[in-house]
Amino acid sequence: MRLDDYFVTSEVERSRLKLIKELSETFAERAAKHDEAGSFPHENIEDLKAAGYVKWTVPKIYGGEEISLREFLMYQEQLARGDGSTALAIGWHVGMILNLRASHAFPEPIFKDLCESIMQGSGLINSCASEPATGSPSRGGRPETTATKTDGGYRITGRKTFSTLSPALDFILVTAGIADSEEVGEFIVRGKDVRIVETWNTLGMRATGSHDIVLEDVFVDDAHVVTIKHPSEKSQRNNDGGGWMLHIPACYLGVGLAARDFAMKFAATYQPNSLPHPIADVPHVEQKLGEMELKLISARTFMYDLASRWDRATEEERPRLRPYFGAVKTQATSSAYEVVDLAMRVVGARSLAKSLPLERYYRDVRAGLHNPPMDDVVYKMLAKQGTAEFR
Question: Region labeled Disordered — which residues (predicted)?
Fold first, then answer.
């Protein structure tokens, strides 16, 4: 069975995967250009819109496909085989809709309006919470972005970093501290109301458009205030256990699969004149190829098993899966990084050539080690869970 088909469970999924694979192959042809320039792949996002992919996690009640987490990961993985940046960028939108669907974190009127905008072709959204001074919001820092109450709503001023998909966003979920209060709010801001500062110039994942966004006295009416709460209160978006965040390891496993494909084809077809057979039959090369397969099989099986468990779980059971989702991310990104390294060792010095994609895969997959949750957080969660039964 081909790796492409291993996790397919129905003909509907097979048909959708075929469409995504065709898009992935097109994106692969554009990837080097956007990587070199650090430019945002607008044409890829438009292709994904035209294919309907941005609607697939929207609930059926609003006209979407309401696909499962497991199925979503399958498509994210495939997209990343063509272009990791495009997959990671669109994954935040598609995954966030799945998260909102499961967690009921938005007031229903806001979620309904958002879904209807998506179905009409103008509803791309991401959450932008990281800031220069506070870093990742998962570390608990209070946002320096400030929301000041005014007639009919709030006026928001501040700056957000790592705002992935920023050049294409129609809506942005922004966190801000409430002026003269300890409370923190979440607000829906229109993409056209913010200023993008093109700061994203990185080693890998260069085409995600993760620039800074600047809010300069942006007005948000009361109807688009999602929450106002004390910092000690947990976000309702966490109620689903965070399964949607598996789009991150799925993306990096997709990059690892692309490196695997390249190395396998190279080893099976390259035969130097010093050998009577392709290098795939050389023992030390064969071992590296086998190691690559084992790492990918292990990480992917773990990820898809947890995704299926999340799909079957009740709303009460899902939060208990959170430590395992973190474990998937840590194992998958580490495995993908190791697979790309092994692929480059198989191909040899020519793997460094800019004319081949391996050096881009190597840079892209490195970024996965810095996506949330971080390893120290994962190990802490697992340790606490493991010792809890003996306390």
Answer: 129-153
